[in-house]
Amino acid sequence: MKLYDSALAPNPRRVRIFLAEKGLEIEKVPVDLAKAENRSPEFLAKNPLGGVPVLELDDGTCLAETVAICRYFEETRPDPPLMGVDALDRARVEMWNRRMEFEVFLPIAQVFRNTHDFFKGRIPQVPAWGEVCREAAEKRLAWLDEVLGERPFIAGERFTIADITALCGIDFGRVTGIRIGSDQKNLARWHEAVSGRPSAGA
Asked: Which residue range forms the structural domain that includes residue 94?
């Protein structure tokens, strides 16, 4: 089993943290995004969309998309549970993880895609859209600060994949100057707690 990985991208980090929380270690194959190794014919045979991470199983089956990979490991290594413990809890975790993806992670990623030099000449960039996304991301961080005033973790009382998604998105925001506000005490408390977990360094 191999995980095609990149130290630069936030999605592979989500899987690495998930694996670390599960106590799993698998072989990691670095993919150099700066050299467009993810656009090579060999890599595109594993994931036609060219994204990382990709999990390659021992029989050659390849799984792409971060949450799909995490779901595979949740099913094969259920403890500790990171995607819920019963029908209602799984639905709640899924709800909050999707909110973190669409409302926090995605706008932060779009700021990077549309304003950062890394993507110049690689994809069409719309800097004005990047700034719209920056404003949206900052508003959502303020909202998340309110959410975290009610409970210790994003989906409730336990650390879940929703916390992983939010952590990786917020940390990635530093590249384009998106930060937790000085007045966002609940978000800062949560960030300190989840960043202090050993898995955060994976």
From this structure: 87-201
